[in-house]
Design goal:
three-stranded mixed β-sheet, 5 strands
Length: 150
């Protein structure tokens, strides 16, 4: 059975809060990731910056956006999974939040990035019952007044 630690990319770049938006954009281009974590010097997660946030800043502020730092656009609520959590938990998080990647944390420290493509390539055996339980109940279309079957 594959684990999150085995499937994650452990060389995920991260930004410091003082990185410029140009540096952040270049790091995203190089890593081919559309959002990067901001970490303190010890590697603890502070937040996340997305390519769409950077694009909006440049569209609305023009050249002035060049004076902004990553911390100015940071979102503190980064989607993440613990390094010791199950793949079912990771798959459920990705499904619920409609994302293709999760930061992998050990406590507060960023250890890597888990992508849906890494999970798909590994073809792990997952417990469907646990996955359904984590995602939530499926609608019961057999009761009167329930939405019609899709």
């Amino acid at each position: 059975m594959s684990t999150i630690a085995e499937l994650m990319n452990d060389d995920t770049p991260y930004l410091n809060p003082y990185s410029t938006l140009t540096e952040a954009s270049a790091a995203m281009d190089q890593s081919k990731i559309d959002s990067l974590p901001l970490c303190d010097p010890q590697g603890a997660l502070i937040g996340v910056v997305t390519r769409s946030d950077i694009s909006r800043a440049f569209k609305s502020l023009g050249e002035l956006a060049g004076s902004l730092r990553a911390q100015h656009l940071m979102r503190p609520d980064a989607l993440s999974i613990g390094i010791h959590d199950t793949l079912e938990q990771a798959i459920a998080q990705m499904a619920i939040h409609q994302t293709q990647h999760l930061l992998v944390l050990d406590g507060l420290t960023v250890k890597g990035l888990l992508t849906s493509s890494a999970i798909a390539e590994a073809r792990p055996q997952v417990c469907i019952e646990e996955l359904v339980q984590r995602v939530g109940p499926t609608p019961d279309y057999s009761h009167p007044g329930s939405p019609s079957t899709p």
